[in-house]
Design goal:
This protein is an alpha/beta fold and about 450 residues long. The chain folds into 2 domains: about 10-40 and about 210-270, no CATH class; about 40-210 and about 275-450, Alkaline Phosphatase, subunit A, CATH 3.40.720. The protein contains 11 helices and 18 strands. The chain has helices spanning about 10-20, 25-35, 115-120, 140-145, 155-165, 220-240, 245-270, 275-280, 285-300, 320-340, 410-420; strands at about 55-60, 90-95, 100-105, 110, 125-130, 175-180, 195-200, 305-310, 350-355, 360, 360-365, 375, 380-385, 395, 395-400, 405, 430-435, 435-440. The protein has an 8-stranded mixed β-sheet, with helices on both faces. Strands 2-11 form a two-stranded antiparallel sheet. Strands 3-4 form a two-stranded antiparallel sheet.
């Protein structure tokens, strides 16, 4: 298999081009406006996956805070007979969900009534009810979901995706994040070109302000031209003295991309260009606007979009809080699935929703109207849609009260291996050599969940 992995990108030919043609950072940026002279040399150029790919892009909706699987997507009718009983001598009582679960779609998979709109697209969704992880602590568990590592700084899933496939739009970042922690988008030891770009987007934001530092508010065009000329001279001086410098290469690429983005980014983040009916379908909310932008980005060739949709840390008031936070994502997520399908993009776009772990089957003290759930890592749920996964199915199973996985456990490494396979990669082969070792997203673990791939 002709993998790009196990080798660093050779940037020396790119520098030779710059030197021989007397172009520097600014010069190449200007040249790119006129013609994409260096598209073939860019590490971000689109690449064909080595294996047959189902998905071309990913939208990762991260439900930070750890949603309760028992109140969302893991239907446990047998648990009702244990409601209010003690499992530890009276300190905690088993807490049966206050939500009804409805058989949804032709498939009849059960989804909580906290998600009435997602119930309408159940036949597009693949529920995984057997996720399991090791640490019920938010920071390390969230780091694991995004990077495959609990402790060490490792590249994020989005960075690995961009490293493997490049991007189909050379005028936009290939990996864009809408909120979330810095380590969720980090490229770590991968070249910094593959790090996620932060978009400071909200539904009322001016489109030309979403990505910072694209436009100068302090200088005229003539002044900027003089600055570019100076950068060209300084860059040429540096090129004549240095053989290889990944940081310089990243700086060159960022200047080029910044010039190209001035028009492309402004257009992509302008949701007012959408019809009133489309915006209403997503809902007049921040999450609705972000998911609509996610669709606009993948439609324009962005490879990976990450969305922070947190607020799921419900130690008390499960009924109230799940209704509120679930309702915030319900309409936009269902709209995203419907919209992508209508546009013929769902088959090539993988949507992921889920948090870092699950919640306990018990509540502290006695069950009452303000009961909540604490952290629990041994069993939780996620869902996927589009991008080559089977719709209308439930994979894996927890026990009768949802405490432990009973069938087909799925680790985070298994989940990552499956995502990479949907994108056309063998997770054991997509590697990067760093400090004398070949690293990969799944470390030394991970099995593909073949049963959910269409």
């Amino acid at each position: 298999m002709d993998y790009l992995c196990n080798t660093r990108f050779d940037v020396s030919s790119r520098r030779e081009f710059l030197t021989k043609t007397s172009f520097g950072v600014g010069g190449v940026a200007l040249a790119t406006i006129l013609q994409d002279l260096q598209a073939a040399e860019s590490p971000l150029k689109p690449r064909k996956a080595p294996l047959q790919a189902k998905a071309k892009a990913v939208i990762h909706i991260f439900a930070g805070g750890a949603p309760s699987h028992l109140d969302t997507f893991d239907y446990k009718p047998e648990m009702k007979k244990f409601d209010g009983t003690s499992s530890d001598g009276g300190q905690r009582e088993i807490f049966y969900t206050p939500f009804n679960f409805t058989p949804s779609g032709k498939s009849g998979i059960h989804i909580s009534d906290a998600f009435p709109q997602l119930q309408t697209v159940a036949d597009e969704m693949c529920l995984i009810n057997s996720m399991t992880t090791d640490v019920p602590a938010h920071g390390p568990a969230a780091k694991l979901i995004h990077t495959g590592s609990l402790v060490l700084p490792k590249p994020s899933l989005g960075s690995w995706t961009l490293y493997g496939l490049g991007t189909e739009n050379q005028s936009l970042p290939g990996f864009i994040t809408l909120g979330g922690a810095a380590e969720w988008r980090q490229s770590s030891f991968l070249p910094s070109l593959f790090q996620g770009s932060v978009a400071n987007f909200n539904r009322n934001a001016a489109p030309n302000k979403v990505l910072p530092n694209l436009f100068s508010e302090f200088t005229t065009n003539d002044s900027q031209k003089n600055q570019i000329d100076l950068l060209k001279k300084l860059n040429l001086m540096h090129e004549q003295r240095v053989q290889k410098d990944e940081q310089l290469e990243a700086r060159i690429e960022s200047f080029e991309l910044a010039f190209r983005m001035q028009a492309a980014a402004t257009d992509a983040f302008d949701i007012k260009k959408e019809s009133d009916s489309t915006r209403e379908m997503y809902g007049n909310t921040e999450l609705g606007a972000k998911l609509l932008v996610a669709r606009r980005l993948v439609e324009r060739g962005v490879r990976f979009v990450q969305i922070d949709a947190g607020g799921w840390d419900h130690h008390t008031d499960v009924k109230t809080n799940v209704t509120r936070v679930g309702g915030a994502i319900d309409t936009p997520a269902a709209a995203l699935i419907k919209d992508l399908k209508q546009r013929g993009l769902l088959d090539s776009t993988l949507i992921i929703w889920g948090g870092e772990f699950g919640r306990t089957v018990t509540t502290p003290g006695r069950v009452n109207e303000r009961s909540g759930r604490d952290h629990h890592s041994k069993a939780f749920s996620m869902w996927m849609a589009g991008g080559g996964v089977k719709g209308g199915i439930r994979y894996g199973k927890s026990d009768e009260i949802g405490k432990n996985v009973a069938e087909d456990p799925v680790t985070v490494h298994d989940f990552h291996a499956t995502v990479l396979r949907l994108l056309g990669f063998d997770h054991t082969q997509l590697t990067y050599r760093y400090n004398g070792r070949d690293f990969r997203l799944t470390d030394n673990y991970g099995e593909i969940i073949k049963e959910i791939i269409a």
